[in-house]
Amino acid sequence: MQRWQLLLRSIFLVILFSGSAVAVLDDGICFTLVKTQGYACEEHTVTTQDGYILSLQRIPMGRSGGVPGKKPPVLLQHGLVSDAASWLLLPPDQALAFVLADNGFDLWLANMRGTKYSRGHAYLNGDDLGYWGWSWDELVTYELPAMFRYVYNETGQKLHYVGHSQGTLLALAALPKDKVLLNMWRSASLLAPFAYLGTITSHLIRAVAENVVANVPYWLDVQEFDPYGLASIQVFAASCLKPEVNCIDFQSALAGRDCCLNAVSLVALLLHGEPSSTMNLIHLSQMITKGTFAMYDCNDENENRKFYGQPTPPAYKLENIPNEFPLYLFHGGADALSDVEDVQLLLDGLKHHNPDKLSVKFIEKYAHFDFVIGYNSKQLVYDPLMNFLTLN
C-alpha cells in the first residue's frame, strides 16, 4: 500500500470512530466522564465579555465524598483541538482531574469557545459570520478573565492554574498583561509549555503552518478549523506528501514520539478532537514561521495600525510577568511542538524571575501528549505538581 493510501486510511478510521462517539459524548462531561467514576460533578456556564457562553465543570470533592469546603481551587485548561475531557481519560488514580480532587483540591475544568461543550453565544451561532472571528488573543483578553472571575466569585479564593499546550500560551500571555486577573491568580503550572514556536521539530506542523500562512484568505473563508473536516484533511494530506515529512507514524510526526501513552486513552483523546477557529490557526502558524510571541498579524501595516496603533503587532513580554509569581514548567525532550530550543527561549525570557519562584522539570523521553495521558504521568508530573500547589 502506498504511503498516501496509508495516510488516508488512518484519517478515515479516525473520522469513523469520531463520528460514532459524538452521540455518546453529547450528554456533557459531568454525566459521561465524571459521575460514571463515582465523583460529584457540577455543570456551570459563564459568558465572556464578547458574548461566548463557556462550559465549566466542577469536581468539588474526591471520590470518598466529604463536605465541600474552603479547598484551594484549581482550574485546568486544555490544549488546541481538545476539550476538558483530556484531563479525565486515564483511570481515576492516574487522571490529573481526579487525582487533584482526591487530594483536597476544588477542581474546575475549562472548555474553550468553539468546542462542543462551549458552542453557545449571546447572539451568534456557529454558522454566523463572526462567530469564528478570534485567535488566541481573544482567549487571553476575554475567555481566561471570564473563567477566573467566575471561579473566584464562586469560591472566594485565588486560583491555581494548570495548562497544557495552548493552555500554557494563554497563561504566559495573560500574566504580563492583565493586572486585575493577577489578583485572582495563585500559581501557574505549565505542561508542554510554549511562548515561541519558531524551532519546532515537527516537519508536519511546520509544513501545515507554511501552507496556512501562504493561503490566509482561503483559511479565513473556511472560518472553522475542524480537525476532522475536509480542509484540515486536505492540508495534512498535502503536508504528509512533502519529502521531509514522514506520516507513517502520524502521532509521532504530529507532536513527537511519545514514550508512555495509554493506548485506550489515546483513542479517547482522538475521539474528543474539537474545532478551533482558522484565525487561531493562522495566528499559531505566524508564530511558527516568524518565530514571534506577539498578537495576531493582519499582514497589512494599515490594518495593524487600525488595531494596534503601530505597523506591526505588539509583542507579549515575558519579562513583565511579576518576578515573585509562582511558576512550574514541565517539558519533554521528545516533544516536537514544545521543543527544547523554544522552551529555552521561554526560559531566557524569564531569566530575571526569582529562582525560588520558578521551578522547571525536564523529562527526557516525554513528548507532547505524555503529559496528559501518559501511564506514568502521575509519578513523573502530577505528584511533584501537587507538592508545588500545596506549597503555594
Give the secondary structure arrangement, pairings included:
Layout lengths: L2 H23 L3 H6 L7 E6 L4 E8 L13 E5 L18 H7 L3 E5 L9 E2 L14 H20 L3 E6 L1 H9 L4 H4 L2 E7 L11 H12 L1 H7 L1 E2 L4 H11 L9 H6 L7 H9 L4 E2 H13 L10 H8 L18 E6 L7 H10 L8 E6 L6 H4 L3 H15 L1
Parallel strand pairs: 3-4, 3-6, 6-7, 7-10, 10-11
Antiparallel strand pairs: 1-2, 2-4, 2-5, 8-9
Helix pairs in contact: 4-5, 7-9, 7-12
Provide a quick synopsis of the model.
45% of the residues are buried.
Task: Write a structural description.
- The relative contact order is 0.14.
- By secondary structure, the chain is α/β, with parallel strands linked by helices.
- Strand 1 and strand 2 (52-59) form a beta hairpin.
- It has helices spanning 3-25, 29-34, 96-102, 136-155, 166-174, 179-182, 203-214, 216-222, 230-240, 250-255, 263-271, 278-290, 301-308, 340-349, 370-373, 377-391, and strands spanning 42-47, 52-59, 73-77, 106-110, 120-121, 159-164, 185-191, 224-225, 276-277, 327-332, 358-363.
Regions with pLDDT < 50 over 5+ consecutive residues?
1-25
Radius of gyration (Å): 20 Å
Helix content: 40-55%
Q: Looking at the structure, what is the overall shape?
A: globular
Pfam families: Abhydro_lipase
GO molecular function: hydrolase activity, acting on ester bonds
InterPro entries: AB_hydrolase_fold, AB_hydrolase_lipase, Lipase_euk
Signal peptide: 1-23
